[in-house]
Amino acid sequence: MSQPHTEHHVIELGVNVDHIATLRQARGTTYPCPVQAADIARQAGADGVTVHLREDRRHIQDQDVYRIRREVALPMNLEMATTKEMLEIALQVLPKECCLVPEKRSELTTEGGLDVLSQVAALTDYVGELSAAGIMVSLFIDPEPAQIEASKHVGAAIVELHTGQYADAQGDGAAAELIRIRDAAKIAHALGMQVNAGHGLHYQNVVPIAQIPEVVCLNIGHAIVSRAAITGFYEAVFAMKQIMNGARLDGEGAGL
Ligand SMILES: CC(=O)[C@@H](O)[C@H](O)COP(=O)(O)O
Ligand SMILES: NCC(=O)COP(=O)(O)O
Predict the structure, then answer these.
(1) Structure confidence by residue, pLDDT tens digits, 140-190
(2) Ligand 2 centroid to 14 CA: how many Å?
(3) 79 is an active site residue
(4) Is any ligand 1 atom within 6 A of the Cβ of residue 199?
(5) pLDDT for 85-134, tens place per residue?
(6) Which end of the chain has fewer CB atoms within 10 angstroms, the N or the C?
(7) Could you identify the atom of ligand 2 that is nearest to the CA of residue 14?
(8) Degrees, nearest 5: CA angle 199-70-68
(9) Interval between CA 21 and ligand 1 midpoint (Å)
(10) What is the dihedral of CA 242, 223, 57, 134, to 10 degrees?
């Protein structure tokens, strides 16, 4: 590991374990287990665990959410669409935070931020119900001043700035996106909301976002799961070869 960046403020990491579940769902097995991954994240110093219970249940399943909430000693950030079904689940699970996200059935991943401006009345009620249950509500929005002001208006405690466009952009485009996110963070902070950020962040692009002083927490998943698959690959191959040839290794550690 290289030296830490000295200009960093202390920033929290919420580890998103969705794509551990993606791998499990690809085969319909019981492994790899997102509950186990969430606990490993805790041991590694994560400050929270994020799960996105999609309406189509393509990765995280209801049981994962209930089990992580019960079994893992980390604050949970439950990402969900603004449906009646999800509201009922959230009120049973009672996570520390609920992050409201837009969802399209056909999308590969969350494409844009929640359009708060176009649904102020409905969101005011929805945010109000979650807040009344003691859940901090976060809105996953694009870094646009009007969406930030609308988020404040509907009663959100937190905005999570969607960093997907920044992550996808190159060169001047990425620099322009970074400025947009920095400006958005200032506006949200000045309005008294907690500022989080996430989506598409990885080991090469995270530092400029982590250096934004107003940002409290980054939620990161896909890159962490991807790195784990590669850095853990040597051990996995080695263990298989040993076991095939009669070694008595404990396979339980990987849950399979
Ligand atoms: C809202 C969001 O950014 C996360 O949910 C993350 O992208 C992981 O979920 P998907 O890959 O299913 O979008
Ligand atoms: N809200 C962003 C998140 O939870 C993780 O997104 P990604 O790192 O999986 O793209």
Answers:
(1) 999 999 999 999 999 999 999 999 999 999 999 999 999 999 999 999 999
(2) 9
(3) yes
(4) yes
(5) 999 999 999 999 999 999 988 888 888 999 999 999 999 999 999 999 99
(6) N
(7) 4
(8) 30
(9) 12
(10) 120
Main-chain phi, psi angles of 215, to 5 degrees: -80, 125
Of the residues 144, 162, 199, 214, only one is catalytic, namely 199
Answer whether 0.90 is exceeded by the pTM: yes
* Atom of ligand 1 at shortest range from CA of 59: 12
CA 142 to chain centre: 15
End-to-end CA distance of the chain: 30
| Nearest protein Cα to ligand 1, atom 6 | 199
What's the rounded Cα separation, in Å, for the pair 253 and 235? 12
Ligand 1 site-directed mutation target among 22, 103, 107, 109, most atoms within 8 Å of CB: 109
Q: Which domains does the chain have, with CATH numbers?
A: 12-247 (3.20.20.70)
